[in-house]
Amino acid sequence: MRFRRTSGFWTSPTSGQRYGTRWIVNIPALDTGLTVVAKPGHELQSAFGGLYEGAATVTGRYRGKPITGQAFVEQNGNWR
Fold first, then answer.
1. Could you tell me which residues come within 8 angstroms of residue 33 by beta carbon, excluding any fewer than 6 positions away?
2. How many domains does the chain have?
3. Which of 10, 21, 26, 66 is in the most buried spot, having the most CB atoms within 10 Å?
4. β-strands 10-11, 2-7: how paired?
5. Is 46:52 a contact under the CB 8 Å cutoff?
6. Cβ neighbours, 10 Å, residue 75
7. What is the pLDDT of residues 1-13, one digit of tens each?
8. pTM given for the model
9. 58 is in which domain, residue-wise?
10. Which of 17, 23, 76 is nearest to 52 (CA)?
11. Are 51 and 78 in contact (CB under 8 A)?
């Protein structure tokens, strides 16, 4: 599996941390290419700083056929 790139960043106005909101994922062994898009604004605050948890949509192709779906994204740290 290869993550080609992360884009569509969102910066939390509360913590100032930056999170990715869009990923392109390729899985050559399954002839699969996916785009995962998370909704911005789902940051939780903890003693360790911000944590992003939120729903995401998935679109792409699996073995040559179009697919759609849903996913859940968790991120911690500050994406650059």
1. 24, 25, 26, 27, 60, 61
2. 1
3. 21
4. unpaired
5. no
6. 20
7. 565 578 888 898 8
8. 0.80
9. 2-76
10. 76
11. no
